[in-house]
Amino acid sequence: MGLQERNKKLFHRVLQDDIERLMPIVYTQTVGLACSQYGHMFERPKGLFISTSHRCHIRSIVNNWPENDVKAVVVTDGERILGLGHLGVYGIGIPVEKLCLYTACAGIHPDKCLPVCIDIETDDTTLLKDLFYMGLYQKRDCSQVYDDLIDESMEPITDRYGQNTLIQFEDFGNHNAFHFLRKYREKYCIFNYDIQGTASVALAGWLAAQKATGKPLAEWRGQFLGAGEAALGIANLIVMAMMESGVSAEEAYRRILMFDKYSLLVQVGICMYTQVVYMHVHTPFKNMPDFISFHNFFSQNVLKAMASINEQPIIFALSNLTIKAEWTAEEGYMLQRYVIFRNIDSLDGRTFKPGQGNNEFPPGWDKSLVYRMYSREDLGFSRWHRAFRPPGCLVSWPNRILGLC
Q1: pTM to 2 decimal places
Q2: Is 98 one of the annotated active-site residues of the chain?
Q3: Residue 194 and residue 172: Cα distance in Å, rounded?
Q4: Number of C-alpha atoms within 13 angstroms, CB side, residue 399?
Q5: What topology does CATH give the domain 2-172?
Q6: What are the boundaries of each domain within the chain?
Q7: 331 is in an annotated binding site
Q8: In the CATH scheme, what architecture does the domain 196-359+381-394 have?
Q9: Distance between CA atoms of 315 and 328, rounded to whole angstroms?
C-alpha cells in the first residue's frame, strides 16, 4: 500500500491489472488489520473527519475539501468495522479502501471519491487508552445529538456536490444502519452496502446454486445464524426473489428462519422492528450461545445433519474475518456429499477453490447509481443480481463486474 502514497496513478493501474490477486490486500482481509492499527500507521488524512465538536461548522469543513466534483461518498461511524467491533475513527480505512475498489472495478476517478468518517466517540476502553488514537477521547454519545450530527453532515455534501451524489453507508451498527437507510432513502441517493450490497451478492450465489442443484428457488428454505443488518438484508432480497417467482409474501417469509444470538425469532420474543416479519409462531428454544461471528460454529455434526436431509446443502459462511468464519471449505469437502460453499473472504484453496461472496464485488452497481442508470430502490438491487449470476459467479467474477461498467 506504500505505492498508493508514492504514485496514485501507478497504484490504481497495478490494482486494475491484477484485481483478483490484489483484492485481499487492498480490502478484506488486510483492511481489518489496518483499521485496528490505523493510528500507529497514520501518515496523513485520506478522508474527511467530522465530529460532534464540529457541529454548526460542518458546512465549512465540507466546503474546504479540495475536490469540486465528487460523485461517490463512502461514510462510516466506525461502530461495526467488519467483525472487529467499534473502532471509532480508525474505521476510516474502510471508506478509503472501498473507494479504491470504486476506481479499480468501476472506473470512477479517485478524485471524484470522498471518504468520510463520523466521529461519535467510542466505548472501546482500549482505544480510549491508545495514545495514537486520533478521535475524541470520550464515551459514545447515542442521544439525539448523534442523529443531528448525521443530518448536518448529509446536507452540505449534497448541497455542494449535487442531490444525485452517491452516499454509501458502511459498517454502521445494526439499528442505525436500518434507521438511516429508511430515513434518507427518499431524500438522498443513498444505499447501505452491508444491507443491500451483501444481499445482492448472496442472492446471486443462491441463484447460481439453484442452477447447480436444479431445484427452483420457490422450493427452498433458508436458515440464518444471525439476525443483523447483513442477514436481514439478504433475507429481504431472497423473499423478493421468491415473490418474483410466484411465491406469496406470507409463504416466502415462512420459508426463512432467523436465529439471533439468543434463539430462533418467534412471536413471543423481543426484536428490532426490521425483524418482525421473520418472527414465527413457535415455542421459544432454550438460550443459545452467542454464535455471531463464532469461529467453527458449524461443527461436523451440524454439517453431517444438514447433508443427511439435503442432497446438496448450500452453506454460506459470511462472517468477517476468515478467523471468525463459521466453517471452512476444507471441512465441507470432507463430507460424503457435495456441499456448495461460499465464504465472504478469499481462502487459501489448493485443489479446490472455494466460491467467494463479498460485498466488495459490486462497484459497477455504484457507478450505475452515480450515472442514474438504475433506480436506487431495492427493486434495482433485485434486477442487478441477475447480471451477476451464473454461469461462473461462484468462481470467476472480475469480467462480470467490469462488464457492468
Answers
A1: 0.80
A2: yes
A3: 9
A4: 7
A5: Rossmann fold (3.40.50)
A6: 2-172, 196-359+381-394
A7: no
A8: 3-Layer(aba) Sandwich (3.40)
A9: 10
